[in-house]
Design a protein that fits this description.
By secondary structure, the protein is mainly beta. The chain has helices spanning 2-13, 65-68, 97-101, 327-335, and strands spanning 25-31, 37-40, 46-48, 53-55, 59-62, 76-80, 87-92, 95-96, 105-109, 120-126, 129-132, 134-135, 147-148, 157-162, 171-172, 177-179, 182-187, 193-195, 201-209, 213-218, 229-233, 242-245, 257-260, 281-286, 292-295, 306-310, 321-325, 345-350, 355-361, 371-376, 381-386. A hairpin with a 3-residue loop joins strand 19 and strand 20.
Length: 387
């Protein structure tokens, strides 16, 4: 009864309402004292009663506010544990604290707000041994912190910020390449997402052509969790490439993309990296002609949270670049037969049959701009792709 009363009183004083746990959902976790954010960069950890130690090296802490908005490792799903009473499982990067530490965490709100915001202690109890999570690197001017299970006082207090596309705690895509006037990011995230900002599209790779084509298939609506995709954006700024985090979607089949959650170079037991195989793997890049493609590149490891192309046909291993294109573009680029002389006058149509321009020389069609066209003369017709 006393414990129940304590929980009730704590709930009444857990003010203000923002930046606090309001139910199962997606959050960023920030240390209240150092203002560094938590990132899950590994799936290994332990809690030893005999030695009274806990290994929390899977968590890394960084203060940079520009970094956190576009890093999938900073997104956590907080879910109440079966026993309730302020016990939670915290999910991230395709795993959860309970799955690799076999412990649920107590996430308990302090009665008094910290800097005007509800703060929480995060701790685990086992056989009477209590360990409090905190950032014990007391250097506020340094970006990187140090996660510890032996924290106390202010460094053991945490904020939980709900992730919302229309708030300061948004998730925005940071493109890694620019090609043909658009921006692209290969991403592999443990959470589902959909487009919030305009100009965002998601693609999987449905087929690889040995002639150097990676056939894209657009994903409509919500991208399921743990689905490697290519994200196309119209801008390079994460603040203009916002995603809705969450939602439900059916698993996508036939996707030739793979992904990795972790690239942890620590030399202790948390080492977790995926070697890059130049024969069977390709990463997103730009060709010498400026086209987006999966390229062989010169990499040692797959970067974390990135999607990559995994080749399965030995006949394709010798191909250095697989250019992103639709099946229609592949048809126009590789299979079209030129039957109209360059000097002949043609009428130019879009693929949907709309007249673009009549009475133009075939040689002048590229001046109409990038796109796929159907050219018709008095006696023949053919497709043309202009890049």
């Amino acid at each position: 009864m006393k414990k129940l009363l304590l929980y009730t009183l704590t709930a009444l004083f857990a003010l203000p309402a923002f930046a606090e746990i309001t139910g199962n959902g997606y959050y960023r976790v920030q240390n209240a004292y150092t203002k560094r954010y938590a990132y899950l960069t590994d799936n290994k950890g332990s809690y030893s009663v005999s030695s009274s130690t806990a290994d929390v090296g899977a968590l890394q802490l960084y203060a940079d506010p520009e970094r956190v908005v576009s890093d999938p490792a900073s997104v956590f799903f907080v879910e109440e544990a079966p026993q309730g009473n302020y016990y939670y499982d915290i999910f991230g990067q395709g795993t959860s604290i309970h799955s690799f530490m076999n412990e649920y965490l107590s996430v308990y709100p302090y009665r008094k707000p910290y800097d005007g915001v509800t703060a929480y202690s995060i701790y685990a109890t086992k056989s009477g041994v209590v360990k409090y999570l905190g950032d014990i690197w007391d250097h506020p001017d340094q970006d990187e912190g140090l996660a510890s299970a032996d924290a106390s006082g202010d460094p053991s207090r945490w904020f939980f910020h709900p992730i919302e596309a229309d708030s300061d705690q948004y998730f925005g895509v940071a493109p890694s390449i620019e090609a043909e006037g658009k921006f692209y990011a290969p991403m592999f995230a443990g959470f589902p997402f959909s487009a919030y900002s305009d100009g965002i599209k998601f693609y999987t790779i449905s087929e690889v052509d040995s002639r150097g084509a990676a056939i894209i298939a657009e994903v409509e609506g919500t991208v399921p969790a743990s689905t490697p995709v290519i994200i196309e954006c119209s801008t390079s700024q994460p603040s203009s490439n916002r995603l809705n985090v969450g939602g439900k979607a059916e698993k996508i089949s036939g996707n030739m993309l793979k992904g990795v959650y972790f690239d942890n170079p620590l030399t202790n037991r948390h080492y977790n990296r995926t070697p890059f195989d130049q024969e069977t793997m390709r990463l997103l890049g730009v060709t010498a002609e400026g086209r987006p493609a999966f390229v062989r590149g010169d990499y040692e490891f797959i970067p974390r949270n990135q999607a990559y192309l995994q080749l399965t046909d030995p006949a394709q291993y010798s191909v250095d670049e697989f250019i992103l294109m639709t099946s229609e573009e592949r048809e126009a680029e590789f299979n079209a037969v030129s039957v109209i002389p360059a000097s002949e006058t043609v009428s130019v149509y879009s693929l949907d049959g709309r007249l673009v321009k009549a009475g133009v020389s075939k040689a002048d069609v590229p001046s109409l701009g990038k796109g796929m066209y159907i050219l018709r003369s008095a006696d023949s017709s053919e497709k043309m792709i202009v890049r």
